[in-house]
Amino acid sequence: MTVQPPDPGVYISPTQTYAEVQRLVRTVDQINGKIDRILEDNREIKGDVSDHETRLRALELGETERQKRETMRIDELETRRWPLPAIGALAGLAGVVTGFVALFAR
Fold first, then answer.
1. What is the value of pTM for the model shown?
2. Is residue 2 assigned to a domain?
3. CB 66 within 8 A of CB 72
4. Quick check: is 6 in a domain?
5. N or C: which end of the chain has fewer CB within 10 A?
6. 60 lies in which domain range?
7. CA-to-CA separations, 68 to 15, 35, 53, 57, 79, in angstroms, rounded
8. In a domain, 64, yes or no
């Protein structure tokens, strides 16, 4: 049985090991900072999407203030519009009745 000598080509000193560990710590800290920024951006995006969804639902249901005002305005115009044709029809009917009365009164 032969004993093999240790490999003399590979030696990492404690100083080198410490320096490498410190470099890795700085790298992990940088990664953590970037992840924190991404998470904060993600929270903002989720808030924006939620707000957007809420506003879209309100639009779909016709519940925005502008839509409510427009609906009230249209309803008001509708109530004002319908009496005018009725008055015109009654006036025309009155003219026809007056014409018949005048025709038969001769």
1. 0.44
2. no
3. no
4. no
5. N
6. 14-104
7. 74, 44, 19, 14, 17
8. yes
